[in-house]
Amino acid sequence: MFRIFIRQILNLTSSLLLLCFFTFVLCDYFFPNGLSFIVSSDPLRISESGFFSQSIHFFSRFFEYLNKLLTGQLGLSISRGNNISDEIINYLPASMELAIVTLVFSLSFGLWLGIIAAKHKNKWQDKLILSATLIGYSLPIFWWAMLLVLFFSLWLGVTPVASRIGFEYDIDVVTGFLLIDSLLSPRYALDAFVSVIQHMILPVIVLGTIPLAAITRVTRSSMIKTLGEDYINNAIVRGISDFSVTWKHALRNAFSPILTSLSLQISSIITGAIITESIFAWPGAGKWLLEAVYRRDFPVIHGGLLITASIVIFIYLALDYISMWLNPKLRDKSNL
Amino acid sequence: MSLLHIENLNVSLKIQNNDALILEQFSLRMAENERLGLVGESGSGKSTLALAIMGLLSNNMKLTADYMNLDGEDLMKMSLEDRRYYISTKASIIFQDPSASLNPCFKISEQINEILSLHEIRGKKLMHQKAIELLDAVAIRHPENVLKMFPYQLSGGMNQRVAIAISMIGNPKLLIADEPTTSLDVTIQAQILKLLFEQKQTSQMGIILITHDFPLLAENTDKIGVIYSGQMMEHASTQNILNHPHHPYSKALLDSIPQMGQRHNKGSRLYALSGQIPSLENIPVGCRLGPRCNKAVKLCVNPPLLKSIENHGKVRCHSPLYEKKEQ
Q: Chain A residue with minimal CA distance to B168?
């Protein structure tokens, strides 16, 4: 276990280093003076006197860059003049909240539907779920979002169209997660919390549709395979309840492929978040990045790229640990 | 009273809108404490029978039977849930692949404790003590260590011992062993079988031993049922079948056992029944063995019935081999 831990740390640092190197080369190559935004605190002076002139050696420039990153300096936004690290802290929690709720939504419903389909293999329930997931997987999400807004917001009027919370609520920022903050501020009792949930329903459905479909399909096939195993038959014969056989004995063994598919879906959630956030005017990192692209706000794009990529790296590390926890065989395999 | 009494069991599988019968008109009667061997080629429906008795058929198979009595209660009259509960108190099964019969995600102790708690044995200390007793009974040397391990850390033979130990919890009246030794080394095979029958001695249960290894049945069973293509072909005591196989198929199976040592005829070829077991889509008319049988006559286009023969047992054949001598 300790050896695996050391290996993971080495893995982590090397992938982060590679990431930094990649972003550095990208910036350094395309914008010879580009990286000065990180060093000179005044963005207007970029063109006048690049700190990173080409006369300094490539690797010296790279280490200077690393040094700045490690102290948390990502430079200033060109269009707004704000410190980019502050902007990230401002926008990231909104995105993370959306992503986490989406993940929980798609995972719980995906497992549930997948298990129903697996248990009724080739019956009508299975066929219904399979065709629904096929449609869900191939839906263009911007179009799907429009349909949902049209139906739920414009025709039925049950959900709001945009933003994270009703404008009448003024919530103090504690964690940045409005689901928690709205409960922490006693001013509005539960009203604010309900408003947050109402605002969340449509974006979560839109963002979660594709991961939900993918997880359902993987769960179904993996569960069908596992439910046919001898140890499942043994568990049934020995009188273990149906619920326990499915959710404890079978699901835990069927979980590795689901986890793999989940790790692929996480990147789809992050890219999907950019579209979803701009449709629903969700003040998150996706919308922030997209606006930066429109404005050619290069330092912001750079910071956003760096931060999302590192988040993905950390999520994959966490998934590694989860799969090790689920599958004891992986725990003492030395060649992980 | 008989422990297991099955009458007219049919198991069918839908293949392209046709019902193919995996088991047809299958009848079986087994006394308490009996050792029954079931033998037949691969694909003859032995394992399906085991799954049918235990209520484990997959949901694309259909089961019908006049009745299926297990220890005095008719399984056919119970709902699936009642049936599974009843079976869990009366019967147990051991599968062929020991590494697949234990859940790879849980420690041995967790797996044993879960079943123990279903049989009203609770409390950490009591469970631990009982678990060690169980593992001791199947001759596992360091039960404390084994309890802490995961199935993949144990060998096949050890896994099968643990599986046997778990299936002994709750003292089942019927144990079905579906080729329990096929995937093990020969030396381990003997140990596991010995163990199985020791367990039978101490806990007084009936055993159904499913195998295609005739010599193994000769030593360990009271009665043998010969199955071919989903039908019981011959059902008689072990002695009778070994000495006077009445059905041509039983004879063919016995003839195809390699003879070693003095009885080996140098240069002779090992007997093999020609042809293959029919697939489910193309089951022959009349006697299912018909196309492969060297004793087949015109009458064999009519399906034979399982009929009793005096001083022997039951045979499904129009012209049993030893009939004339006995008359």
A: A238
Query: Are the CB atoms for A239 and A155 separated by under 8 Å?
Result: no
- Contact B84/A236, CB-based, under 8 Å? yes
Distance CA A274, CA A153 (A): 21
The ipTM value here is 0.80
Q: Choosing among B105, B107, B117, B171, which should be mutated to test the A contact, i.e. which has the most A CBs within 10 A?
A: B105
- Picking from B281, B271, B219, the residue whose alpha carbon sits closest to that of residue B249 is B271
d(CA B47, CA B210): 8
* Distance (Å) from the alpha carbon of B184 to chain A's nearest alpha carbon: 17
Q: What is the pLDDT of residues A195-253, one digit of tens each?
A: 888 888 999 999 999 999 999 999 999 999 998 888 888 888 888 888 888 888 888 88
- Closest-CA residue of B relative to A328 is B105
